[in-house]
TrEMBL record:
It comes from Yoonia tamlensis. Keywords: Signal. InterPro entries: ClpP/crotonase-like_dom_sf (IPR029045). This is Clp protease. Residues 1-20 form the signal peptide. SUPFAM superfamilies: ClpP/crotonase.
């Protein structure tokens, strides 16, 4: 878990304070990626200006929590996103489970979005929609910057020390992610398949998703 939590701490530290706007009770309102429609909260990361990244971000977490607090009758979380921050997906999933929300995919929900989708009690995929899985990735430039930023605090004398820590931490992270899938009712064999190396995102069929427990009425 440290692999992601420390990395996200760096990102948050350089991104500035999180701003969150509360939505009045009982009033439909649109705030960027979020739109309240009665008892449904729509989260669509494509709904951003052209100069912004269309993905799940750390700033979304506080806003998500504030909107639910201001709209306590929310029952359904509708998702459209190709993913983004692993940390944001996990934190929003924790909040969604606390509110006992149902989840629904409209269009595509992939990568970190799936973590949030699996937080739902009932989980539905709209016809024509898709749910996508892929391995986590950490590119060379990101590894280099992470090592430069943290090597003193972590007592890494050289990149080999970092590599030794990374090898252990990746295994811990994979165990945690797989445990979450199984805890949310996903078949263990299917959960393992989500971590297989592939050249592209894996979009299972509706039948595969139903049989694996990803979709649940």
């Amino acid at each position: 878990m440290k692999l992601f939590s420390l990395y996200l701490s760096l990102i948050i530290a350089t991104a500035g304070p999180v701003s969150a706007q509360k939505i009045p009770n009982g009033v439909d309102a649109q705030v960027g990626k979020f739109f309240v429609d009665g008892t449904t909260l729509i989260y669509n990361t494509n709904n951003v200006p052209p100069d912004q990244y269309a993905e799940m971000e750390s700033d979304d977490v506080a806003l998500f929590s504030d909107i639910l607090e201001a709209n306590p009758n929310t029952k359904l979380l509708q998702l459209t996103s190709t993913g983004g921050s692993v940390w944001a997906g996990e934190e929003m999933a924790r909040i969604a489970m606390d509110y006992r929300l149902d989840t629904r995919v409209s269009g595509e929900c992939s990568s970190a979005c799936v973590t949030l989708f699996l937080a739902g009690n009932q989980r539905v995929l709209d016809r024509g929609g898709a749910i996508g899985f892929h391995q986590n990735a950490w590119h060379a430039d990101g590894l280099r910057e992470y090592y430069k930023y943290w090597h003193r605090d972590e007592n890494w004398d050289n990149p080999f020390d970092f590599g030794s820590w990374l090898y252990r931490d990746v295994q811990t992270e994979m165990h945690r992610q797989l445990s979450y899938l199984v805890a949310r009712g996903v078949d263990p064999v299917f959960a393992i398949e989500t971590k297989r190396e592939r050249s592209n995102i894996w979009y299972p069929t509706r039948r595969e998703l139903e049989e694996a427990g990803v979709l649940r009425d």
